[in-house]
Amino acid sequence: MLEATPLGDGWILRHGSETLPASVPGCVHTDLMAAGVIPDPFLGRNETDVAWVGRRDWTYERELPAPSSAQEQTDLVFDGLDTVAEISLDGRLLGTVRNMHRSYRFDVTGLSGRLSVRFVSAYAEAEAVRGRLGERPAAYAEPYQYLRKMACSFGWDWGPTLVTAGIWRPVRLERWSTARIARVRPLVSVEEGTGVVELAVEVERTRVEAPLAVEATVAGVRARAEIEGAGGTVRLRVPDPELWWPRGYGGQPLYDVELTLLHGDDALDVWRRRIGFRSVELDRRPDAHGTGFTLVVNGERLFARGVNWIPDDVFPSRITRARYRERLEQAVGAGVDLVRIWGGGIYESEDFYDACDELGLLVWQDFPFACAAYPEEQPLRGEVEAEARENVVRLMPHPSLVLWNGNNENLWGFRDWGWEPRLAGDSWGEGYYLGVLPRVVAELDPTRPYTAGSPWSGSWRHHPNDPAHGTHHSWEVWNREDYADYRLSVPRFVAEFGWQAPPAYATLRRALPGEELAPDSPGMLHHQKADDGNGKLARGLARHFAVPDGDFDRWHYLTQVNQARAVAAGIEHWRAHWPVCAGTVVWQLNDCWPVTSWAAIDGDGREKPLYHELKRLYADRLLTLHTRDGALEVAAVNQGAGDWTGTLTLRRMSVGGEALARAEVELSAGRRSVARVGVPGELAPAGPKEFLVADLDGLRALHFPVPDREVDYPRPEFEVALAPGGIRVTARTLVRDLLLQADRLDPAARADRGLVTLLPGEEVTIGVRGWRTPDPEAARSALYCVEPTR
Fold first, then answer.
1. Is omega for the bond preceding 330 within 30 degrees of 0, making it cis?
2. 298 exposed, middle or buried (CB, 10 Å; 0-12, 13-18, 19+)?
3. DSSP string of 237-250?
4. CA–CA separation, 563 vs 498, rounded Å?
5. Which residues pair with 148 in a beta bridge?
6. Residue 790 reports pLDDT greater than 90
7. Catalytic residue among 409, 496, 613, 690
8. What is the mean pLDDT of residues 376-396?
9. Is 383 a catalytic residue?
10. Is the pTM of this model over 0.85?
11. Which residue of 51, 200, 225, 435 pairs with 185 in a disulfide if CB–CB is 3.0 to 4.6 A?
12. Count of CA atoms in the C-beta half-sphere (13 A) of 21
């Protein structure tokens, strides 16, 4: 039987003439931090002080264990090397590598001695490739498009520039005889109620003549097949399997598959995975509104409630299985059912996809290309196909994976960002997105759909970012326009949109120790990576609120309110237009360090008000108020499996708390549908002293006819008392967007809700965990709400 020996211990890192202890998996930065050579680059402006690390060559070394005569072959296996390296043993070159997204295997049979992995600076390699192949345009000045490495390690508009090197995934010795399983490609489908598992097996041999067979089991079904030469196929049929569903639509049953490679009665190697039975389609048929983009799972058409995912740490080797699980459980807690793995990052570890399988989170997987023109010549072209082939097969068992996507924004960039004339006919990646990648997916994984890019309209007949065709990225809002403009169009699928806000207060205090916080203080500006990010925050805030002058705490609160309001404006509008719009994917769920960004969960894992707002926006039932054709209407969005019927209560109220008019309307929304009801004219609020309240089955929607800066709010009055597990707030006046910033009470404290608006006499209980010394006066000091401007 194949024997695997981990090689995670005993490594050193050569630092000039010195050696330091090294962790594997890990990277140069984390090893240097552990040794005290560099400071934490996430704190203050240390990032700039450690920029030299990415410009150096680095060498990892350890002793390779003595060879074993018990097996015929010994392989040295690296699951991930970041990125360009030479691997040698006692000075003998085993091989060179140049792709972070691949694994590598070297025959070291009979060998031992000093194992050395020498990493060349990623900058040096990228600049050398650029020198050979010529300039290619990109959204950022860093040379990330010239090598197969996590692009955002070179920095992004939310991330630091920390160019890593190291053995970032596990390494081991594998000893085996006769043959081993080289690859298993599982095709899982459902045919007329029967689950079908087809396992295409490839083997590597030491003895060509040895007769081999494979035996596979799943759900009590067993099948056997002979191996001819280097491969064979075994097929299993499972009657009436339980189907795997995305969360909210059904359960997530998973089945263990085991395949054993046999030589006679001897088991040589075993491959084990978990699978789920489900079908997935992407409906891109043209219709009266353009070209659709609707995911269909097990025949059920979905409105995708999504978030974009970036690497959860700029040093990915630090992300543990528990951390993946925590972050993805947070996504589930916000009502998310789809996670898009963005193309400037990585193919995530098995831990990520395992959690998504178990939690019922659909995964949209970008191939790692983002915001740049990528050369298609060697050495890149061969690397791209090799990594695609390896990762498509590696990830195929996961039922959560439902879509392959060729790139992020590169087709759009070619058309709109001035690349076409600059390229003057040079290659830029189109051959990958419309040639290599769809060919690889069609050959290896025909069970899943592929789309060439995001955004992408489906062909060059339409603009790549045409909202009427395929996927759309909405970035005019935030960059130039107000979020009210989300309501001016109904894209078929909104794959990116968002609004910035700073991280939680405790996150800022940890990341910027000793700094007097201000929107433009040195550390705040350093931890704001977006082009004119603070200017966009200020202009976006001024459209809705009186911008506080010199009051950081009010600025911090209002920018977080504005982020939640912006995302709500988009999702409420687009969900109300289902099935024309079939999904929203918020930019972004998470951060990779403490930064002002579009994230709902900040770099320390703390949830912003946006996170809690997503719970409302992505719930099965959503009540919204908006203007349509000049008149107010209520939209009741029902994504649940049953009908939604009830009595809708509408109240026109004064900001002083007086009910000016009232009506009750019967409302009924069928399963997976939207019901609309017009608001009677006499209930439409007018001017700065009135607003409309809609209530249905415990859900509420509000409409103020003017921006907050013009609303004649009363000075908020409320009482605060301790309650079991938190605090109780009772309103004496209208209290708009009340927020408990629990981390101001204790850095470990978390509140169970975000923004809440209370009418006079209403109360809310806010649960708080991690608060060691509950006190009502302290709680009052951490409560914020919208205040009158006059």
1. no
2. middle
3. EEESPPBP--TTTS
4. 8
5. 99
6. no
7. 409
8. 97
9. no
10. yes
11. 200
12. 8
